[in-house]
Specification:
Layout: H1 26-33, H2 37-53, E1 58-64, H3 73-83, E2 89-92, H4 94-104, E3 110-111, H5 118-124, E4 126-129, E5 132-135, H6 136-150, E6 158-159, H7 161-179, H8 186-193, E7 197-198, H9 206-216, E8 222-223, H10 225-241, E9 245-251, H11 254-261, H12 263-270, E10 280-284, H13 299-304, E11 316-319, H14 323-337, H15 350-370
């Protein structure tokens, strides 16, 4: 007798959206009309962020790549997320922080056209980031600002990039105050909220280029990326020791993505301290894993490295959408669906967090030495 073929189960919600209306909020539109394909993935991303990652017991890390601050997304999205306690620590490209500083010190960027003649722009002293234009003197003024503050006595010692950004953010915030600018700079906001910002490749930006010049001049400032490795790992480990969870919100890929995720291998693989991996994983990207262009690849691949807790794979979303489209929608959704959280002010707790990690490693190291291991 032929084997009976099981009938496919229609278990999902019925697709029957209400008509889109002009008075719908962004959050209502996402819940109602984003039902399939990448739209549905974006809805899943919004719900994962708002419903799970923003619980009070979750430490949220964000990585930022791509030219987002020049496009105004620092002001429109990142600053509200930080002020509402929706991001606890961040890894950003230096370029995003450099261009963010333009706004904080009273410089301007403009909407332009990607089809403009770049030779003509060069002759006119205009710099282009795709369809964003600004005067070449904006670069020179921002360079001068960073060199001026970095020559001050308080900067003349080795420091993590978080310490550099916190100290620099105070001067950007003061410039905002003097110029009567309001909430223009991500760096200034992070300083006010004591949210640590790290740069995984500090030499790979105009900030790093200007600090390199000061080294030639004999100044003592040195950015210490190894301190960054330990500090970021300590945030994740301490969160777990407090009975909390760790979430990563990744915009793009590149070095900042890996730097956020490598915190778990640093704890487990290098230090030998027992841990399971991040609890929530949300990535916005337009890259593909099969060509090698999706840095750090997929959540399931990250499991093999110990970066993601394998039991938490259902709580991971990769949304293949441009960050300039997805981030404003996710921000609007979170602000509509979630109450503000009190900022954790993790920058002020760095010593405490490092003590927690160092203590755990000391116990592991004693056991290793007792076994004759290095």
């Amino acid at each position: 007798m032929p084997k009976k073929i099981a009938r496919p189960r229609l278990a999902g919600a019925e697709i029957s959206p209400e008509p889109v209306r002009g008075d719908m909020t962004a959050a209502d539109l996402i819940d109602s009309a984003f039902l399939a394909y990448n739209g549905r993935k974006l809805r899943e991303a919004c719900r994962l962020f708002a419903e799970k990652m923003l619980e009070d017991d979750v430490f949220v890390a964000m990585s930022v790549t791509g030219a987002l601050t020049p496009a105004g997304l620092g002001m429109s999205c990142l600053i509200p997320l930080i002020e509402n306690g929706f991001v606890d620590w961040m890894v950003s490209t230096g370029a995003n922080l450099y261009h963010d500083t333009h706004f904080g010190i009273g410089l301007k960027m403009y909407q332009g056209s990607a089809e403009t003649d770049d030779v003509a722009l060069r002759k006119a002293g205009v710099v282009r980031i795709y369809d964003i234009f600004f005067d070449y003197r904006v670069l020179l003024s921002t360079d001068a600002f960073f060199r001026q503050i970095a020559r001050l006595d308080e900067f003349q010692h080795p420091m993590s990039t978080a310490e550099f950004h916190f100290r620099a953010g105070r001067y950007v915030a003061e410039r905002e105050r003097i110029l009567k600018l309001e909430r223009k700079s991500l760096l200034a906001t992070a300083h006010r909220c004591a949210m640590p910002i790290y740069t995984s490749s500090p030499g790979d930006s105009s900030i790093g280029m200007n600090l390199a010049l000061l080294e030639v001049e004999g100044y003592a400032l040195r950015l210490d990326p190894l301190a960054d490795v330990n500090e970021t790992a300590s945030i994740v480990y301490a969160a777990k020791q407090l009975g909390c969870k760790s979430a990563v919100f990744i915009l793009g890929g590149g070095s900042p993505k890996n730097f956020v995720l490598q915190t778990e291998p640093q704890i487990q693989e290098v230090m030998g301290v027992a841990e399971k991996g991040h609890d929530y994983f949300l990535q916005i990207t337009d890259a593909r894993p099969d060509t090698g262009g999706l840095s750090g690849a997929t959540p399931s691949e990250a499991v093999s490295w110990g970066k993601i807790d394998p039991s938490k794979l259902p709580d991971s979303v990769v949304c293949y959408v441009d960050s300039t489209v997805a981030l404003p929608l996710i921000t609007a959704y979170a602000l509509a669906r979630r109450r503000a959280r009190k900022p954790r002010r993790l920058y002020e707790r760095r010593a405490e967090l490092m003590d927690t990690l160092t203590s755990a490693y000391s116990k592991v190291r004693k056991k290793r030495l007792a076994r004759g291991e290095s």
